[in-house]
Amino acid sequence: MIYGMILAGGNGSRMGNTHLPKQFLTLDDTPILIHTIEKFLLNQKLDAILILVPEKWLNYTGDIIKKYIGGMDKIKLVKGGNTRNETIMSGIAYIENTFGSTDEDIIVTHDSVRPFLTHRIIEDNINAALEFGACDTVIEAIDTIVESKNNETITDIPIREKMYQGQTPQSFNIKTLKNAYESLNEEERDILSDAAKICLLRGHTVKLVKGEVYNIKITTPYDLKVAEAIIKDSTYAERDPEEVATV
Questions:
Q1: 75 within 8 A of 3, measured Cβ to Cβ
Q2: Is 133 annotated as contributing to ligand binding?
Q3: What is the pLDDT of residues 187-223, one digit of tens each?
Q4: For the chain, how many structural domains are there in total?
Q5: Domain that holds residue 108
Q6: 155: annotated binding-site residue?
Q7: Does residue 151 lie within any of the structural domains?
Q8: What is the model's pTM?
C-alpha cells in the first residue's frame, strides 16, 4: 500500500507573535495545512493520508478538516512524536497496527507547510520509492554553499554544481526506513534529524527527485507573504485545482 504522511508537528516559533502553529495559519483565507492535504487528496494512488500532529492539536485539526474538506474517509489523524523522526515512526506504528504491513509498503512524507507541491512531484516520489526504496525531493543550488564548522570562519566552499537544496516529500519503503532507524544508537538518534540521511548512512541508495523552486516551506512572516503572492498570481489562480496539481 501507499501512504501519504503529512508532518504537522511544528510550533511556529520563527513565525513571530501568533497564537496558532504555522500549519494552521491562513493562506488565501484557508489554513496552510488544508492546502497541503488537498494536494494529497488529488492523488488516487494513496490508500490513506496520515496527518501527524501534537496531541493537544488533534481535535482542532479534525475540526478544520471537517470544515474545509468534509469527509475523513481517507484521512487519519495520528499523534506525533517529540522529533521529526519520532513522528514518522509514530505514523509507521499506526500503519502497522491499523492496516498491517508488507515488504512493498511505502510512505510519502511531507512538510505540512509546503502547500505548493505538485501532482508530478508526488508521482515521482512514489515511483522512486517503489524502485529505490528511498528518495528525496531537491532543487539545484542557485547560491554558492559555504561551510563553517565554528560558525565564524569558512572551512569549505563545495562545488555548487554538485550541491542541491532539500525539500519534501521524502519517500521510503516502510521497512527500509524502520530498520535503518532502529539500527541507530541513542546518540545517532539525537543527531540525525533527516530520514533520508539515516537511510544513506545505512548504505541505502537515495534517489533524487526534481522539486520546484516554488515548493517553499512557510516558516517565517516573509515566507507567508511570498506564499500569498504565489497563490494570488493570476496564472496560478485561474487554473482548475486538478490542473494546478499536475504542473
A1: no
A2: no
A3: 888 899 899 999 999 999 999 999 999 999 999 999 9
A4: 1
A5: 2-138+165-245
A6: no
A7: no
A8: 0.90
